[in-house]
Amino acid sequence: MNEPLVQTQVIPYLRELVKGGHDLTLLTFEPGDVDESEIRSTLAADGIEWNWLRYHKRPSVPATLFDIANAVRFIRKLMKRRPFEILHARSHVPMMMAALARKASSNKPKLLFDIRGFMPEEYVDAGVWSESGAIYRNVKTAESWLMAEADGFVILTEAARDVLFPESAESGYDNAGRPVEVIPCCVDFERRFSGDASERRAMKRKQLQVEDRFVIAHVGALGGLYLTEEIADLLYLSKLENEKTFALFLTQSNPELIIPLLRDRGFSETDFIVRKVPASEVEDYVYASDVGLSFVKATFATKSRSPTKIPEYLAAGLPIIANAGVGDTNRQLDEDGCGTLLHELTERGYRKAIRELSSLRPNIAELCRKSARMRFDLAEVGGRRYRRLYDSLTDRPPID
Known about the structure:
Blueprint: H1 4-9, H2 11-19, E1 24-30, H3 36-45, E2 48-54, H4 60-81, E3 86-90, H5 92-103, E4 110-114, H6 119-125, H7 134-149, E5 152-155, H8 158-164, H9 168-171, E6 180-182, H10 197-208, E7 214-219, H11 228-241, E8 245-250, H12 259-264, E9 272-275, H13 279-287, E10 291-294, H14 309-315, E11 320-323, H15 329-336, E12 339-342, H16 347-358, H17 364-376, H18 378-394
Parallel strand pairs: 1-2, 3-4, 4-5, 5-6, 7-8, 7-10, 8-9, 10-11, 11-12
Helix pairs in contact: 2-18, 4-5, 5-7, 10-13, 11-16, 14-17, 17-18
């Protein structure tokens, strides 16, 4: 519950489903102690019942199997108490929990597989699993079973749809007649990125003492599939072009993944900030920036990714520098003119991207916010599509 992504990419969607007349029970896995009474009362005020189980991390495979078994037992207990119509599983491991719980129960709710990415391939790309190894092969076998068991699907990108369900592009259904919705990571404009942007920008820049700097922001993880070395290279070349370049990193990752790289490239302590901040404060830092970065290794697996940082940058009026080949980013930036794409991670490519930034239209901030509203508005895009999918699975007439 304390993870930023839960606060920005789970709870807001559940609120949207409550608006559609659905009663919701949320089950999370917590690595440590949580303030049960506060969380439970906050969610109850939104119409969401909350339950939690202890999360176990190591040893990896036995811990995951233990959590799955524990969840199956708990979900079955919940199902005896109330007749759920849908078990909505956010990613592969929760889907295994839901599918096994349904299999072992007389209750047979619909299974919604909310596919947050091509998980087995991501582990291979990150060097965690071997494509020829037993774990990867077993997970792929399990994935095939889960895909067959599901009654409906959420995917994050049109690129993922092209891989998994190309037939659904026109009809909205796969070959078995199951509903498919593409729902990218969205922004809750009712609660975030509101108010006077210029005033918020000025206040935060003054607080950070970067009023006269050119601030390039990176929000999110470092290392693994995130191209940390390449980010540092681009920042170095930007600093050569513009000595006022300032690097801002908002990350839950170890700061030592980036700080030595910046120092090696001539950044002094006054030229960067690497900070871990609550989800509620991210937008102020983004408002204080001039450009947002999204550098993720482009692979088969990352076709399925919808980086949460992109709608946040756009909502704050920031143009984006992103590498090509990740999710739907190519089409989004090309069609909306809200940034520049890196087609090669080389000095030539970085210099080209830096030059292109200066040639973006004068009303770029307005164009970015318009793009965010059109593609990533929680209420008008994410909420409507989730409610449409729930209504389809429950055969209810839509409320909105």
